[in-house]
C-alpha cells in the first residue's frame, strides 16, 4: 500500500513537471523568456510558484528544460557506414530537418534567446546536443579525407537558422499554409546547401 502511494506520488510529480515544461515552452515561445514570469507559468499550470521551484532550481533551469528536443529516430552506425557520400549527406540532412521540424518551438527559443542569454547556447551544446550516428559517420569520413572538413556544429546551426527563417517566411506569406510536414521547396534548398558545401569546395 505504501509503495503504491509512493509510486502514485512520483507519477503525479512527473506529470506536473512535464506540464510545467510544456506551458513554460509555449510562453517562452510566444512572449520571450524575459517577458514571462515564473508566477505566470505557475498560474497557467495551476500550481504555486513554490511548487514550480520544487521541480526547477530557477528560471534558467526551466528554460534549459524547455529547449530539450524530442529525438528523431536514429539508425545504427553500421547502416550509415554502408551509404555512399551522397546518400549519407541526404540521410543526415533529412534527420536534421525532421528533428527541427518537430521541435520548432525549442529551436526557435534557442535562436531568439541565446543573444541575450549566452549561457543557453553554451548549456545546450554542453548538456543537450548529442551527436547522432549520422553525425559520427560524417565526422569519420572528414577525418579520413573522404569529405571536406568543417565545423559540424556550426554548420548545423547555420542550417537550422536557415530552416526556421524559411518556415517563418512561408507562414507569413502563405497564412493558410498547413504545416504538417516540411515543404518540398524548403527541403530541396536545404539539401542543395549541404551538397554544395560538402561536394563543391
Core attributes:
201 residues; mainly alpha; 11 helices; 0% strand
Annotate the secondary structure layout.
Layout: H1 2-31, H2 38-45, H3 49-55, H4 59-66, H5 77-81, H6 85-101, H7 104-113, H8 118-128, H9 133-143, H10 152-173, H11 184-199
Helix pairs in contact: 1-2, 1-4, 1-7, 6-9, 6-11, 10-11
Description of the molecule:
It is built from eleven helices and no strands. The protein has 201 residues and is mainly α. The longest helix has 30 residues, at 2-31. The chain is globular, with a radius of gyration of 20 Å. It starts with a helix and ends with a helix.
Tally of DSSP β-strands = 0
Q: What is the N-to-C order of secondary-structure elements (H for helix, E for strand)?
A: HHHHHHHHHHH
The portion of residues forming beta strands comes to under 5%
**Unreliable stretches, pLDDT < 50, 5 or more residues?**
none
Distance between the termini: 67 Å
| Broad shape | globular
The SS-based structural class is mainly alpha
Helix content: over 70%
Report on the biggest sheet: none
State Rg: 20 Å
Q: Give the overall average pLDDT.
A: 88
Number of distinct helices:
11
In short:
This protein is mainly alpha-helical and 201 residues long.
Amino acid at each position: 500500500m505504501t509503495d503504491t502511494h509512493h509510486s502514485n506520488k512520483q507519477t503525479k510529480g512527473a506529470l506536473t513537471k512535464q506540464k510545467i515544461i510544456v506551458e513554460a515552452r509555449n510562453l517562452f515561445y510566444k512572449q520571450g523568456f524575459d517577458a514571462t514570469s515564473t508566477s505566470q507559468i505557475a498560474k497557467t499550470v495551476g500550481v504555486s510558484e513554490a511548487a514550480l521551484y520544487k521541480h526547477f532550481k530557477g528560471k534558467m533551469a526551466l528554460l534549459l528544460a524547455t529547449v530539450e528536443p524530442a529525438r528523431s529516430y536514429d539508425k545504427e552506425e553500421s547502416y550509415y557506414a554502408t551509404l555512399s557520400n551522397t546518400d549519407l549527406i541526404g540521410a543526415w540532412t533529412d534527420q536534421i530537418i525532421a528533428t527541427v521540424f518537430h521541435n520548432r518551438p525549442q529551436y526557435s527559443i534557442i535562436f531568439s534567446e541565446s543573444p541575450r542569454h549566452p549561457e543557453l547556447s553554451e548549456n545546450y551544446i554542453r548538456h543537450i546536443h548529442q551527436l547522432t550516428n549520422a553525425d559520427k559517420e560524417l565526422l569519420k569520413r572528414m577525418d579520413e579525407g573522404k569529405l571536406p572538413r568543417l565545423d559540424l556544429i556550426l554548420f548545423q546551426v547555420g542550417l537550422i537558422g536557415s530552416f526556421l527563417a524559411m518556415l517563418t517566411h512561408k507562414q507569413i506569406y502563405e497564412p493558410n499554409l498547413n504545416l504538417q510536414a516540411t515543404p518540398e521547396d524548403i527541403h530541396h534548398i536545404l539539401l542543395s546547401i549541404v551538397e554544395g558545401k560538402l561536394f563543391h569546395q
